[in-house]
């Protein structure tokens, strides 16, 4: 289990920021074995700083990162897989050689590195590109190589900063499947992303960070359930003024009226809708992660 506890980090001021900047102001969350954790927030919210502290690239001013109940150390981090937002590939090196090289850096034997690299190339759809230089690859294929580098040593934890950025749907599905397979093997996975629909689809738990503070965290189901649910009613060709006096908003799309409301007597709304016209839809909808995010950071 990966535990991040009360991380704080400030950067000194300079000519453009004489007062300095508080990057993290008490960030705390936990990623459990086999859990995929989505770390979301606006640009500059503190996501990358948090990940860099986890990986030892930056040092926190205070707070602690723990792995398996003990302070995270150098040897532990060597077992982690890290995919930084700024990609770190050698552009002129061939794909297969690159993955093998990083496997050797992680302590694998030449034979083990070659086998792992070959397996990942097949798993991530890079067989036809294995002998191409990285600089000749599309962005999506470079992302696949970067993920292979993070996976080559069979890491105990995956920390991925914007791994799906700029990818087409096929590449997204390929990378998502690879991460889900690792989760099923018990590996904790944390990744940041601005693609909230993707986070909602893939993640077990989510943390929303704003201004260096965690403003919401929990399972996707719990976060959605904690918000007010919306009653949505679609009535076709209704009588004029049928929703007068009801709270909420009515949107007109052709001959359909769509009422969205909350905290009302749903049976009374249903009676009025049925009397007014043909009810095509009547149901309670939970907010999306995008809606929760907007509310949390407002």
UniProtKB/TrEMBL annotation:
Protein family according to the UniProt entry: Belongs to the ABC transporter superfamily.
Primary location: membrane
One GO CC term, this protein: plasma membrane
UniProt protein name: ABC transporter ATP-binding protein
Compartments (UniProt record): Cell membrane
Superkingdom: Bacteria
Gene3D superfamilies cross-referenced by the UniProt entry: P-loop containing nucleotide triphosphate hydrolases
4Fe-4S in keyword set: no
Single GO term (MF): ATP hydrolysis activity
């Amino acid at each position: 289990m990966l535990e991040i506890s009360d991380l704080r980090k400030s950067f000194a001021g300079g000519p453009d920021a004489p007062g300095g900047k508080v990057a993290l102001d008490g960030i705390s969350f936990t990623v459990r074995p086999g859990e995929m954790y989505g770390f979301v927030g606006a640009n500059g919210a503190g996501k990358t700083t948090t990940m860099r502290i986890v990986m030892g690239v930056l040092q926190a001013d205070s707070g602690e990162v723990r792995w398996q109940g003990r302070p995270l150390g150098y040897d532990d981090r060597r077992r982690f897989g890290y995919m930084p937002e700024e990609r770190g590939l050698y552009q002129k090196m061939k794909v297969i050689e690159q993955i093998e090289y990083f496997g050797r850096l992680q302590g694998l034997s030449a034979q083990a590195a070659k086998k792992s690299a070959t397996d990942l190339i097949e798993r991530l759809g890079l067989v036809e590109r294995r002998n191409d230089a990285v600089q000749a690859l599309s962005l999506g294929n470079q992302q696949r190589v970067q993920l292979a580098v993070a996976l080559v040593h069979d890491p105990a934890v995956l920390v991925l900063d914007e791994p799906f950025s700029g990818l087409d749907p096929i590449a997204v599905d390929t990378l998502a499947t690879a991460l889900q397979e690792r989760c099923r093997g018990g590996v904790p996975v944390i990744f940041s992303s601005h693609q909230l629909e993707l986070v909602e689809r893939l993640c077990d738990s989510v943390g929303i960070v704003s201004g260096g503070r965690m403003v919401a965290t929990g399972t996707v189901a719990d976060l959605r359930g904690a918000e007010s649910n919306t009653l949505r009613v679609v009535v076709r060709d209704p009588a004029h003024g049928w929703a007068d006096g009801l709270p909420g908003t009515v949107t007109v799309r052709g001959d359909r009226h769509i009422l969205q409301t909350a905290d009302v007597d749903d049976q009374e709304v249903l009676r009025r809708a049925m009397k007014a016209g043909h009810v095509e839809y009547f149901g309670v909808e939970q907010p999306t992660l995008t809606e929760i995010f907007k509310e949390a950071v407002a």
